[in-house]
Amino acid sequence: MEYRAATRHDAWHVARLLIQLYEVEAPGMLTGDLEFSALIVRRALEHNDCSALLGAYYLQTLDDRPTGIGAVATAESPRRALWYPNLPTDARRLLGVRSGRAFVRGLKKLMGALVNPIREHEAMLHSIVIDRDVRRHGIGAHLLRVLEEEAGRREKVSSVLYVLNGNPAEQFYERFGYHTIRVTDGSRWGKKAAYPSIAMRKPLLRRAPSVLARASR
Ligand SMILES: CC(C)(COP(=O)(O)OP(=O)(O)OC[C@H]1O[C@@H](n2cnc3c(N)ncnc32)[C@H](O)[C@@H]1OP(=O)(O)O)[C@@H](O)C(=O)NCCC(=O)NCCS
Hints:
Layout lengths: L1 E4 L5 H15 L8 H13 L3 H6 L1 E6 L2 E9 L13 H9 L1 H15 L10 E9 L8 H15 L4 E7 L4 H7 L3 E6 L2 E2 L2 E2 L4 E7 L7 H6 L1
Parallel strand pairs: 4-5
Antiparallel strand pairs: 1-2, 2-3, 3-4, 5-9, 6-9, 7-8
This protein binds coenzyme A.
């Protein structure tokens, strides 16, 4: 298994994996054609500052095949919004009025998680997904370790992440030392601004050597 920061050449792989994540984490968002949905996500990844947005994702490959992604956000390098100005128009055109609206609403609710503050000593792990064909083979566990090592390399003392209520991934994170710190229903100012989620945290070993750093030597 290898890990590297994604580049613009990986946009399509990252988009397809994100769609697999949204299938689980964004109920009601994907009611239209999945390939077109992935195309919109790819355009959002490629928009503008694509190297910074895509570079936040670590791409996991197995025999050169992209099998998973995950990202580390910090106060210094926060999570970026997956958006571009024409996205609602593209969504309506490619997915149809009803599905396009559901897609945009879902994406906005996912981005509602962006307003969760990241504390200076913490890393936020997000967008963790393993290709559905290779789940339950220990690959996610490996990816999680790589992301935690990266957080440790950035001198963070704990990692936090958000899981949708009812996502079996909660058991995955529990198994690797995460505990629930908060349950939210996603409401902000009386509106359902984000998906209901469980915030989980794990203390990290300080200054863990980075698999990514070793790989790039
Ligand atoms: C969650 C996810 C990343 C786990 O990746 P994975 O490669 O399948 O996980 P692993 O094989 O490394 O699992 C290690 C252990 O975690 C636990 N685990 C993993 N998936 C689980 C599930 N669906 N239900 C319960 N426990 C699970 C098990 O204890 C497992 O060990 P076992 O297979 O020996 O029983 C993957 O299922 C996925 O991509 N899910 C969809 C996207 C998603 O929900 N991402 C999380 C968003 S917060």
